[in-house]
Amino acid sequence: MPIGAMALTDIEYASGIPAPILTFVQIQIAAIAKTYSDVDAIYTAAVGNREAEYIQAEQDARAFKAAGYVGTPSAYISGWATVKSITNQAATDAIIAKADALQTAKLSLRNTRFTSQAAIQNSTTQAQLDTAVATWNAFISTTKTSLGLP
């Protein structure tokens, strides 16, 4: 159900008193807030608390590739290669491909979030708001799929 169509009467306060029906502006604010939480959820699912590890693996992979895949790769590369039963070169290329995909997704998430927030904020009718929210939700779903996330 699009967020703009929610009356939110199913949500109750801890005391059991039904929550009030939100105004159109409150629903817009909630929809904009959801764009942030959706992006945060993708970052958490894709990287979690391992960002420093992934950055190091990417740096090491790019350095190993720049050296023509010659020499001893870092443990970030060889560890992945061992676990996946692939060559160090294949592991290097996989690490770089994953890093590039994540960077592309980050930029897309940022720019599409801005566009979607503007569409939500500029909505003047429930239909416009529902369309803006549905467009955002479809984008989030596609992004999760492209990153292999649930």
Helix content: 55-70%
Low-confidence stretches: 1-14
Structural class: mainly alpha
Q: What is the makeup of the main sheet?
A: none
Summarize the SSE layout with pairings:
Blueprint: H1 24-46, H2 51-66, H3 75-84, H4 88-121, H5 126-146
Helix pairs in contact: 1-4, 1-5, 2-4, 3-4, 4-5
Explain what this protein looks like in three dimensions.
This protein is mainly α and 150 residues long. It has one domain (3-146). Helix content is 69%, strand content 0%. It contains five helices and no strands. The protein has helices at residues 24-46, 51-66, 75-84, 88-121, 126-146. Mean pLDDT is 89; it is low at 1-14.
Key terms:
elongated, 5 helices, single chain, 150 residues, mainly alpha
